[in-house]
Specification:
Length: 87
């Protein structure tokens, strides 16, 4: 009878340890999921920030050249002005 009791005690201890391991795995998986979500949010913020920086630089670069293209479209091209003066 004592050996049966000892075996039951061992089974109960093993079950308790298994429950602790299971809970630890659940907590670990939850932390991993949260970390992935946080990392994804950081990545999205980084991408948005870089896109804004790019658009700002692009607008600055095109803005300096944009004046020339608008002059060409208006017909204020230097060659046309010279032709108008000569003709």
């Amino acid at each position: 009878m004592a050996t049966q009791w000892h075996g039951i005690q061992q089974l109960l201890q093993v079950e308790k340890r298994a429950a602790k391991v299971s809970e630890a795995r659940k907590r670990k998986n939850l932390r991993l999921k949260q970390a992935k979500e946080e990392a994804q949010a950081e990545i999205e913020q980084y991408i948005l920030r870089r896109e804004r920086e790019f658009k700002t630089k692009e607008a600055a670069a095109l803005g300096s050249h944009g004046g020339y293209s608008s002059e060409v479209k208006k017909g204020d091209h230097p060659l046309e002005l010279l032709r108008a003066e000569q003709g």
